[in-house]
Design a protein that fits this description.
about 400 residues
């Protein structure tokens, strides 16, 4: 048993470390193995913070959403988990992965490497981080408001109920009148039964004496007659007392169901105004009406709001804080080497013909023949030009025709 527990704990530790390192963007096991134990533990902590806080947010969102929806459901839980996972992935990409290159350049420069690559964060990257901080504030505030609503649920329901009854006052008045009439009838029945029992109890002695007289007149045993008369009277009183108790229970139940009876009457009326239980109405009931009547109500809600916002900002700061990292430096160095290699390969394959000599350009036209000297281009004596063509030009049809005429002559 001890050996199995040791193996399980070892497997759990190894799996947790791998998951935390992946969450911290330490993907290469070889580079991670070259880092110090302190840096690896720091990366495990950062990854565990990301996973743990995403789990905490999922539970918190599910609690607030279940309260607002009136109950928990599987689709609602899946939606809350999806939102939390999406936010966790956004933090993983924007605060861990994209920051790895910048942190690596800082680490390389701190180590003495000189490079022309810019280590400054681009403006859109800073904008993305600021947008994430703004989103964190919005989500924290919304979650804190939801928790404030949960804590003040009783006060909210009371104010919504008062508003509902006031809006349906005419129906409530009619239901109250009908209820009071029915309650008075039951009270009258109960009082009448009580009076009857008192009267019977007062006549107990008379009934026993009448039974004794009847037994003597019939020459029966008076003791037995007395006993039988007493038992019959007790049974009669028990029956009447049970009926009185039943009327009492019915009266108490009717009096206790006043609000339920009124609500049933309101729900059954076609003139009723529905109850307003929207999210905005609940916020108004707490942060406007309840605070106006009791300003101290705002104190615990404000403390909870502040605590949730500070927790979220603290965790966000822990995710984005800079720490010199040998892993980031090694990963950035490998990335720079790959970039330089790709740039040289592209220069050799794509841009190599731009600076090559004339003889190494196969795609260009062959060189033109040298122009004839000026003495050869001078027109000789003889016939003048015809039709505007230079018959002295070398290789032209007119020059060839002139040569043929000279031969014939």
């Amino acid at each position: 048993m001890t050996e199995r527990l040791t193996v399980f704990l070892s497997w759990l530790k190894s799996t947790t470390s791998i998951v935390a390192l992946k969450a911290a963007a330490y993907d290469d096991p070889k580079l991670a193995a070259e880092c110090s134990i302190t840096e690896r533990n720091s990366a495990i902590v950062r990854g565990a913070v990301l996973v743990g806080f995403s789990t905490f947010n999922a539970a918190l969102y599910a609690a607030v959403a279940s309260y607002l929806a009136g109950g928990f459901s599987m689709p609602l839980g899946i939606a809350c988990i999806s939102v939390s996972v999406l936010l966790g992935l956004g933090d993983h990409y924007s605060l861990y992965r994209t920051a790895l290159y910048t942190d690596g350049l800082h680490s390389l420069r701190d180590g003495g490497m000189r490079t022309d690559f810019l280590a400054a964060v681009p403006p859109y990257s800073r904008l993305a981080k600021r947008a994430r901080i703004a989103l964190s504030l919005v989500l924290s505030t919304a979650t804190a408001i939801g928790i404030g609503l949960i804590l003040n649920n009783t006060a909210i329901d009371r104010r919504i109920e008062q508003e509902y009854l006031s809006a349906n006052k005419a129906i409530v008045d009619r239901a109250n009148r009908d209820f009071e009439q029915g309650l008075k009838r039951k009270e009258a029945a109960y009082n009448a039964k009580g009076t009857e029992i008192e009267r019977l109890s007062a006549g107990r002695t008379d009934e026993v004496r009448a039974a004794i007289r009847e037994a003597r007149a019939a020459r029966h045993d008076t003791i037995i007659a007395t006993r039988d008369a007493a038992e019959a009277f007790e049974k009669k009183m028990a029956t009447q007392q049970a009926r009185l108790n039943s009327l009492k229970d019915e009266l108490d139940h009717t009096a206790a169901t006043r609000q339920e009876t009124i609500h049933r009457a309101i729900e059954a009326s076609p003139e009723r105004i529905p109850r307003n239980t929207t999210f905005v109405r609940r916020i108004k009931a707490v942060y406007y009406e309840e605070v106006a009547d009791n300003p101290w109500t705002l104190l615990p809600v404000s403390l909870i709001d502040l605590a949730i916002i500070l927790i979220d900002l603290s965790v966000l700061t822990l995710k984005a804080i800079y720490q010199p990292s040998a892993y980031a430096a090694a990963a950035t160095r490998n990335a720079l080497e790959a970039l330089v290699a790709q740039a040289r390969l592209g220069t050799a394959n794509i841009g190599g013909n731009r600076g090559a000599p004339e003889a190494e350009r196969p795609d260009e036209d062959p060189p033109r023949p040298p122009a004839a000297p000026a003495a050869q281009l001078r027109r000789k004596r003889g016939r003048p030009r015809k039709n505007g063509f230079d018959v002295t030009a070398v290789g032209t049809p007119h020059r060839q025709a002139r040569a043929g005429e000279d031969t014939d002559a």
